[in-house]
Amino acid sequence: MSEKIEKTLKAGEILKKVKKELPSIVKPGKKLLEIAEYVENRIVELGGKPAFPCNISINSDAAHFTPKKGDERVLQEDSVVKVDIGAHVDGYVADTAVTFDLSGENQKLVEAAEKALENAISTVKSGIDVSKVGKVIEETIKSFGFRPVYNLTGHGLDRWIAHTKPTIYNYEAGKGIKIEEGMIIAIEPFVTNGLGKVVDRSEVEIFSLNPELAWSEKSFRVVRMKQAREILKEALQYRTLPFAKRWLSKAPEVIISKLIRDGYLRAYPVLTEVKNGLVSQVEHTLIVEKDSVIVVT
Ligand code: CO
Asked: In terms of residue numbers, what domain contains 221?
């Protein structure tokens, strides 16, 4: 077995265990920060590292929400909660997500995402066009009376890279782009009773280094402010993988903003449904083999 497959499987095993523990912690009244830290610490205890901050996106927020340092916000009773988690072993990443419907009133929304993912996975084999996978996802979601979120996609995974080619749309698009044997991909249908589009909110807690600068301290020597250099040096341990502001020892807003403007950091604002529709999401990481797939997570 190649190192890539072995370590991706290990990252997947870690996430499976963490996911099994989630129902006992994703409960009304729990602090969001407590949930995120629980997930991130468990990944480390089980022998991996977080591949990105634990995302806990609630109701119309679809992705990229993670609590901030000292965050006091708690989970409300009626929430639709997407928990999207990633682990890596030596840079080999697995990525998975699950939705909790705390009120029990949005089961169909969750079921639509689950069924879309299940149908998509059974379609994947080497040589298949991403547009065929997307078509299955969209048709399944529509059969439940909902819409996919058209501007959120599945993706390839690579060493130290949480998002790479191929882009796997949640509708029929990307004709000619093939899924090939040996690829590691994440499929993640997002379902909404809104319009099917997400837009940025102003809240940003997740960042990554510019991939061209993420490999060596040398790139930061020209940065003149000491505080800015310190942030970049600290972020270097994550390479190109996303990290949370709360993971940094110091992160003054003005300095972070400057680093974004100067192209050193990328920001991932919270993505929210444009008509405030509720959003559900499920995700699995797959290793693509010749005639089948291994579901890693
Ligand atoms: Co993903």
From this structure: 206-268
